[in-house]
Write a structure and sequence with these properties.
The protein is α/β, with parallel strands linked by helices and about 375 residues long. It folds into two domains: about 150 residues, 3-Layer(aba) Sandwich (D-Maltodextrin-Binding Protein, domain 2), CATH 3.40.190; about 160 residues, Periplasmic binding protein-like II (D-Maltodextrin-Binding Protein, domain 2), CATH 3.40.190. It is about 30% helix and about 20% strand. The protein has ten helices and 15 strands. It has a six-stranded mixed beta sheet, sandwiched between helices. Helix 2 links the parallel strand 1 and strand 2. It is globular, with a radius of gyration of 42 Å.
Length: about 375
């Protein structure tokens, strides 16, 4: 092959290669690095904050003032509100008056609400509550100078019963098995004396028991006893006289010659017998039964019983308790006290005095001897 022909062939090959390159697919551009899209930082979950409990004694968490239903619940509620208002004014605390359905229910409430309950409960109720959950006594009642009280056995004035022994087989009316004077002390005394009553009827309270005797529904009843007052306003006998053994059986009742003249005063607030004033449970039904003294008499009086208590729940705040105690002492010195717990129609507390737990050991011994427990 000559040189000219070789040159021509090389030229054609180069031209063809260039043409094919121009008609081929376009080169793919290298990907350009881009910044990743921004993402929001995760939101922290809200921290749960614990809502503090309302302070004891605030409107949102009132202090429960419990009163056992030993007298008419309406009287307790009305008089209790007077006390609550006085305590509120003195302390700024809020109180809620409550009348549980029974003595046992009162104890149950104190143990179930240990931080915010205070209660006016008898010695037996206190003895049980202190053993059950640590309820603590602060005050005891004073009634006309007496830090103690008694139970009385009452019968129809024209009945055949003259001594406790005569009650063998007799129908017995009492208010509540949790009542110290209404049931517990008489139950122990009757047992100790070898006396077995017949049918027993629970009436619901002291007033109802007196009414049951008055109406002849039971042969005898057991209720609270307080010493009558002379026309001069003094107790027939003093506590010192009682301790010294100077009290005779006839001194427990007003003189026999004034009983026919016993009647409520003009305002219906007192049961008077020619100036002598009756203070035991019979006086509580003087309006409904003005002749109660002519129809119902005292058969016997029990041993002395430590007076009712004001007690606090076992976990009641100490600083708030002190405020209330101070306010109660002040309230006891006012006229309003007489329209509240100091009223003879209410609990008849003429005053209060500090109490100690040891004073109620006598009641605990009584409970232990009988195996008594609060009804459920």
């Amino acid at each position: 092959m000559n040189k000219r022909l070789v040159f021509v062939l090389l030229t054609l090959i180069v031209a063809t290669s260039m043409l094919l390159s121009a008609c081929g697919p376009a080169a793919t551009a290298a990907p350009v690095a881009t910044e990743a899209p921004a993402t929001e930082a995760p939101t922290a979950a809200p921290v749960a904050t614990e809502v503090p409990e309302p302070t004891v004694g605030s409107p949102e968490h009132p202090i429960k003032v419990l009163f056992v239903p030993s007298v008419d619940a309406n009287i307790i509620t009305t008089g209790g509100e007077v006390m609550a208002a006085a305590l509120n004014e003195a302390t700024g605390l809020t109180f809620e008056v409550t009348v549980p359905t029974s003595y046992a229910a009162t104890i149950e409430e104190m143990c179930a609400s240990p931080m915010d309950t205070m209660a006016f409960i008898p010695g037996l109720g206190y003895a049980l509550a202190s053993q059950l959950c640590g309820v603590d006594v602060a005050f005891k009642a004073v009634r006309y100078g007496y830090p103690v009280y008694w139970a009385e056995y009452i019968v129809a004035r024209d009945s055949k019963f003259q001594t406790l022994a005569d009650l063998e087989g007799a129908t017995w009316g009492y208010g509540d098995q949790g009542s110290t004077s209404g049931y517990m002390v008489p139950a122990v005394e009757l047992t100790d004396a070898g006396i077995t009553p017949g049918e027993q009827k629970q009436t619901g309270g002291h007033n109802q028991t007196v009414t049951a005797v008055y109406n002849g529904e039971v042969d005898f009843g057991t209720v609270f006893y307080s010493v009558p007052l002379t026309p001069e306003g003094a107790p027939v006998f003093t506590y010192d006289d009682y301790v010294a053994g100077k009290v005779t059986a006839d001194m427990y009742e007003v003189p026999a010659d004034v009983i026919p003249n016993c009647a409520p005063d003009a305002e219906g607030k007192k049961l008077l017998c020619d100036g002598w004033r009756v203070l035991d449970a019979r006086a509580n039904i003087r309006v409904e039964a003005p002749d109660v003294m002519q129809k119902v008499r005292i058969l016997a009086i029990s041993q002395a019983i430590p007076n009712d208590t004001l007690s606090f729940g076992p976990e009641f705040p100490a600083d708030i308790r002190t405020q209330i105690e101070d306010a109660l002492v002040a309230f006891a010195g006012t006229e309003a006290w007489g329209t509240s717990i100091g009223s003879a129609d209410f609990y008849g507390w003429s005053g209060i005095t500090p109490a100690t737990d040891a004073e109620y050991d006598m009641v605990r011994a009584m409970v232990a001897a009988t195996g008594y427990t609060a009804p459920k």
